[in-house]
Specification:
By secondary structure, the protein is mainly alpha-helical. The chain contains two helices and no strands.
């Protein structure tokens, strides 16, 4: 199993990934203005539902690890 430090990223999205998606979707890269708006939308969307996702992941991880401890 990997060891994680407090500074490790769990998830990230690069501008390159956004631009690749934009090129596939609309046939061109986004302007700086559009990138700014996409960033705002991502931050809102991730913050809006990220708490639910994180809480669920923590609950599941705790449940699975507690079951493993009881078996061992």
């Amino acid at each position: 199993m990997d060891t994680y430090t407090r500074e490790d990223l769990m998830f990230y999205i690069t501008v390159e990934a956004i631009q690749e998606d934009a090129t596939r979707r609309i046939g061109r890269e986004l302007t700086e203005c559009e990138l700014h708006l996409v960033r705002n939308g991502l931050e809102w969307g991730l913050c809006f539902d990220l708490c639910t996702v994180i809480n669920t992941a923590i609950d599941q991880a705790q449940s699975i690890c507690n079951k493993k401890k009881r078996i061992n």
